[in-house]
């Protein structure tokens, strides 16, 4: 069956590259993926695959920009079901580099590989549909909006009951990884990626003339002390050996050379692996902020927006999919990975059903941009990896249906 899957994917490879490049040229931001999902739906329906549209609604009145495809095996009756997930959204980044398929939407770019994820799950679903006489069960194709933005499209799909009928026994997802060479697959059992929360802090002082600081409450040095104190939570309050990151990526003190501003705005991210410690931090950090800021006569609004939980790869499912990967690409091309402080809303799936989220190598020193980090303006992938990624998703699904 591996040979048949590889042959079916090979027949789709040129189309898959074309789909990926079309999506790359026409990226759409989170929960705005109207044309992206239309491309997917039209291709699925042209193949005769059942489609459910409008999932992933931000509000009960909104039409969701996600879709579900149901590929049903024809070999015999079976209630077994496995889900394959792709994410649709792009990022607010102005692209540089490649000319052949550069983004045509100013300031929007597929810099995280979601165009590739979508093309690969689409190809895997079509290949399985064309081979449906050889297998039983159902493969659910999940085309999810809003991975890059809270509340996270995955959480919306779970809340909407998308997985109630049919009910998958598990879900598989993959992510392109420039740090791995093309041809490699990376796995980790158990906790894999961090929980991520967003920090929004406003230090309120009293501005005025920079030559008369005694008449002001200068929020800038107060904010500076707060920033340093927050980093000390990582080094002094966090248990040694427990993964944690607190990064502040935006600080705005909009004064001038001779103007002390009224406020300083700070934004950042909190990454953790322990839910108990995470909950403690949600109380500790604002209290710390108030203590420092109010001691200087200023005030602070310290808001934490709770994001995705930890990605928990189910040990049994991950062991089976890793074994399937060895069958598909050979043991030398399957590696074990360390934990990652990056976050993924795939995590929501892993908290309601067994999940396996693995990595697809897309780095190639001979191809510009393919070794660039994710979320960078020059990021690209080695498109030779698409056939492996699509084939692995299809093969992993069939191996799970056999188990089912």
Q: What can be said about this structure in brief?
A:
The chain is an alpha/beta fold and 404 residues long.
How large is the count of helical segments? 9
How far is the N terminus from the C terminus? 17 Å
> What's the mean pLDDT score?
97
Per the principal axes of the C-alpha atoms, what is the gross shape?
A: elongated
Cα Rg: 23 Å
Largest sheet: 8 strands, mixed
CATH architecture of the largest domain: 3-Layer(aba) Sandwich
Adjacency order of strands in the biggest sheet: 1-2-4-3-5-16-6-15
- Which class of the largest domain in CATH terms? Alpha Beta
Q: Give a count of the beta strands, DSSP E runs of length 2 or more.
A: 16
The tally of domains stands at 2
List the helices and strands in order.
HHEEEHEHEEEEEHEEEHEEHEHEH
Structure explained in plain terms:
By secondary structure, the chain is α/β, with parallel strands linked by helices. 34% of the residues lie in helices and 25% in strands. Helix 3 (114-130) links the parallel strand 3 and strand 4 (138-144). Helix 1 crosses helix 9, helix 2 runs parallel beside helix 3 and helix 7 (315-329) crosses helix 9. The longest helix is centred in the N-terminal third of the chain and has 24 residues, at 2-25. The protein is elongated.
């Amino acid at each position: 069956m591996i040979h048949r899957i590889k042959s079916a994917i090979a027949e789709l490879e040129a189309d898959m590259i074309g789909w990926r490049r079309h999506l790359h040229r026409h990226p759409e931001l989170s929960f705005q993926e109207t044309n992206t999902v239309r491309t997917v739906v039209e291709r699925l329906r042209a193949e005769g695959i059942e489609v459910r549209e409008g999932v992933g609604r931000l509000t009960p009145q909104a039409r969701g920009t996600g879709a579900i495809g149901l590929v049903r095996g024809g070999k015999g009756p079976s209630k077994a079901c496995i889900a394959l997930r792709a994410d649709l959204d792009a990022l607010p980044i102005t692209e540089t580099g490649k000319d052949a398929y550069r983004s045509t939407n100013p300031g929007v770019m597929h810099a995280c590989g979601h165009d590739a994820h979508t093309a690969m799950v689409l190809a895997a679903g079509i290949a399985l549909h064309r081979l449906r006489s050889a297998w039983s069960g159902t493969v659910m194709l999940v085309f999810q909006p809003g991975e890059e933005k809270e509340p996270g499209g995955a959480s919306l799909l779970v809340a909407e009951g998308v997985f109630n009928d049919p009910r998958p026994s598990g879900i598989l997802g993959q992510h392109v990884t420039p740090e791995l060479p093309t041809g490699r697959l990376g796995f980790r059992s158990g906790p894999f990626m961090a929980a991520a929360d967003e920090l929004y802090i406003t230090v309120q002082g009293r501005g005025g003339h920079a030559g008369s600081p005694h008449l002001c409450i200068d929020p800038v040095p107060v904010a500076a002390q707060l920033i340093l104190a927050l980093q000390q939570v990582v080094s002094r309050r966090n248990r040694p050996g427990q993964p944690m990151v607190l990064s502040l990526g935006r600080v705005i003190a909009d004064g001038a050379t001779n103007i002390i501003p009224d406020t300083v705005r700070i934004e950042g991210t909190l990454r953790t692996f322990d839910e108990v410690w995470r909950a403690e931090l949600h109380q500790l950090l604002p209290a710390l902020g108030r203590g420092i800021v109010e001691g200087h006569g200023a005030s602070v609004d310290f808001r934490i927006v709770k994001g995705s939980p930890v990605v928990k790869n189910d040990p049994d499912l991950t062991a089976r999919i890793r074994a399937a990967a060895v069958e598909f690409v050979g043991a030398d091309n399957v590696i074990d990975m360390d934990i990652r402080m990056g976050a993924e809303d795939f995590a929501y799936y892993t908290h309601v059903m067994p999940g396996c989220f693995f990595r697809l190598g897309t780095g190639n020193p001979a191809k510009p941009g393919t070794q660039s980090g994710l979320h960078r303006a020059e990021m690209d992938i080695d498109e030779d990896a698409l056939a492996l990624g699509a084939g692995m998703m299809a093969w992993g699904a069939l191996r799970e249906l056999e188990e089912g």
